[in-house]
Amino acid sequence: MEARVSLSVNGVAHDVVVDTRTTLLDGLRDRLGIFSPKKGCDHGQCGSCTVLVDGRRVISCLSFAVSYEGSEIVTAEGLAEPGDLHPLQQAFIDQDAFQCGYCTPGQVCSAVGMLDEAKNGHPSHATDDLDPDAADEALGDDEIRERMSGNLCRCAAYPNIVAAIRQAAER
Q1: Beta-strand relationship, 2-9 and 50-53
Q2: Which of 55, 71, 59 is nearest to 107 (CA)?
Q3: How far, in Å, CA of 88 to CA of 168, rounded?
Q4: Which pTM was predicted?
Q5: Domain count within the chain
Q6: Which part of the chain is the 2Fe-2S ferredoxin-type domain (predicted)?
Q7: How crowded is residue 155: how many other Cβ atoms within 10 Å of its Cβ?
Q8: Which of 78, 100, 135 is the last residue of a domain?
Q9: What is the 3-state secondary structure (H, E, C) of 87-126?
Q10: What is the CATH number for 125?
Q11: Measured between alpha carbons, how far is 10 from 131 in angstroms, rounded to an integer?
Q12: Does residue 96 sit in the same domain as residue 164?
């Protein structure tokens, strides 16, 4: 069965007809030609397909496109104005936080969402203080690692990824 779905992706409205079983990832890549979200595992285990939906992190290979009717979807391409870089994208460059680059768009989108969650006082398993007033404190490396644990890097660039996220969080 097919359905028409209206999505706003990186600030551009799209009306697309998809099979109701089409994942958001496949809709973005196959129907809209947006290739930064990667199909890594196709099982929600690697995070390379992470996008932001209405500001929240979403594993797009596990989500049906039709469920995001009217949502604002942001991929790595849409984090900043054309010709500019988002502070996290710049931090990834500054800290050499990628090798092959395959996971980088998902890592960056996840980090943007994660920093917003931390800023809004959402705890993780590594959070020492659950006091919402403590949300302004700097994120430690263990906290960053825990919050990013759903995003895998096959090249093992984790120390530089953590450094990049710390750099962006400090700004």
Answers
A1: unpaired
A2: 59
A3: 5
A4: 0.92
A5: 2
A6: 3-79
A7: 12
A8: 78
A9: HHHHHHHHCCCCCCCCCHHHHHHHHHHHHHHHHCCCCCCC
A10: 1.10.150.120
A11: 34
A12: yes
